[in-house]
Task: structure prediction
Amino acid sequence: MIKKLAGSIREYKTPVFLTLFFIFAEAVIESIIPFITAKLVNSMQLGEADISFILKMGGILVAMAVASLSCGGIAGYTCAKASAGFSKNLRHDMFYNIQNFSFKNIDKFSSSSLVTRMTTDVNNVQMAFMMIIRIALRAPLMLIFSIIMAFVMGGKLAIGFVAIIPLLGGGLLLIAKFAMPAFRRVFKKYDRLNESVEENVRGMRVVKGFSREEYEKRKFGDASEDICKDFTKAEKIVALNGPLMQVCIYFNMIFVLSIGSWFIIGGRSSIAVGEISSMLTYGFQVLMQLMMISMIYVMLTMSAESAKRIAEVLDEKPTIENPKNPVFDVKDGSVSFKNVNFKYQKHGKEFALVGANLEIKSGMTVGIIGGTGSSKSTFVQLIPRLYDVTDGEVAVGGINVKDYDLTALRDAVGMVLQKNILFAGTIKDNLRWGNENATDEEIIEACKLAQADEFVSTLKDGYDTYIEQGGTNVSGGQKQRLCIARALLKKPKILILDDSTSAVDTKTDALIRRGFQNYIPDTTKIIIAQRISSVQNADLILVMDNGKIVETGTHEQLVKSSEIYREVYEQQTNGGEDNE
Result:
C-alpha cells in the first residue's frame, strides 16, 4: 500500500529530499544550542567569562538560532510544496484510473464513496505525508540527539529520559488499538452521508414534490449525529495521549531538578548549574519530540484507513481492457449474438441474460420491447462492451467485440442511455461530446433531426445557453432530445436508444425516427421503448422477458404470434396512445 501511494510523489521528490535535508540541519543545530548555552553558564558561574567571550558566545548562539529558523522556514516551504503536489498527483492517479473502469468496476464503488476517497481521504493522507516528511524525521532526530547530549552533559541523570519511552510507547499503542475501529467506522459512514447528500440534491424536485424536506433533514441529521458519535468516541480515546505526555513531562522535570539538585548540594557529582539547565532543556526537547511523535501516531492512525481506501481505487484493475493486438476498424454496423449468457457478478447465481442468439444486418432498425427487469438495457450494453459476456460471443462488423480497440469500438457505437446526463457547460459544449470538431452547422442539423432546435432557438443565448450541472435547467424531454443530437453528431455505425424518447410526445418521437431514416440510413438503429408506436415500423422487433428473447419478428407478425406483444399493443391502442 505504501509503495503504491509513494508512486504518486513523482516530480516532487526533490522538494521531499530538500525538506529532509533542512530538517536534519535544523535538528542538529537545535541540539547543539543547549550545549553551548551550558558552557556559557558554567563559564560565567566560575568567573572565567569576560565580556568579549560572552559577546562571542552570544553571537554564535544568535547565528545558530537564525540558521535553525532559516532551515525550518525553508523546510516548511518545500514540505508544503511536496505534500500539495503529492495530493494533486494522488487525485490525478485515482481519477485517471476511474476513467478506465468498466461498468462492473463502477458497480463495486458507489459514486459517493469515490468522492469521499478523492476529497476527505486524500486530505487525510496529505496531512499524514506532510507530518511524515517534516515532523516524523525531525522528532526522532531531535529525540536521539537530545538523549545523546543529555548523557554527555548529565551522565546517569539522563536515564530518566530513556525510562519513560517504553511507558509512552505502550500507552500510544493501546490508544491506537482502541481508536482505529472507530475511525474505520467513521469513514464508511462518511460514504453514506455523502450518498445521502448526492441523492437529495439530484432528487430535489421529487423531494419537494412529495413535501419530504423534513424527512430528508431528519435522515441527514441522523447520519451526521452517527458520525459525530463515532468521531467523538475516537477523539476521546486519542485525547488520552495529552495527559500521558503531561505525566511524562512533569516526571522528567521533577526527576532532573530533584536528583540534579541533590548531586550539586551534596557535592556527589561534577554536574554544575549549566549542566542542570541544559538537562532541563534537553528533557523538554525529548518530551516535546515524544509529543510530536504521538501526534504523528494519531494522524497516521486516522489516515491509515484513508490510505487503504485510496489504495483500493488505485489497485482496482479494469475488468475490461484492450486486447494485445486490437482491431481499429469497425467495418459496418452488423451485430451478432451467439449463445450469450451474462451475469453481473462472477460468482452470482442468477443470470441477467440467458441464451441470447440474434443476427442484425447493418442498417437495420431493431426495436426491443419488454417489461421492467427483462434485461433490455443489459442486452444493448454488451454491444459497446460496457460489460463483457459471461458466456458466448457478441460480434460487431463480423468481429468479436473483445478483439476491438475499446475507443474504436465505442466511437462506432452511439448510445443514448436511460438516464440522460448533461454536463455543466453550454449546449454547444455538451453536443460536442459527440464530435469535438463539429461545426455550428452540423450541431444545428443534428438538433433539427432530434427535434431540439425548435426549443434551443427560443432560448435567450441559443446554443450558448449554459446548462447547469445535471441539466437541471432543462426539462426531461429537452434533455432527451439534446442527448439524441449529441449521439447523432458521432455519425455512429450503430445507434442505441435506451428508452430515450420516453419524455417526448408521440408526434415528436415519430419525427425523430423519421429523421434517422433520412440522416443515417446506413446506421444500425436499436431502439428500446415502452411504446409500441416507437418500434412498430422497425425491420425487426425483439420481445424480451425475464432475461430471454422470447419472440422476434415484425410488428404485423408479432401482433399475430406473440401474446405478450399483442397484449401491450392492445392496451396502448385502446388507451389512445398509439396515434401519431
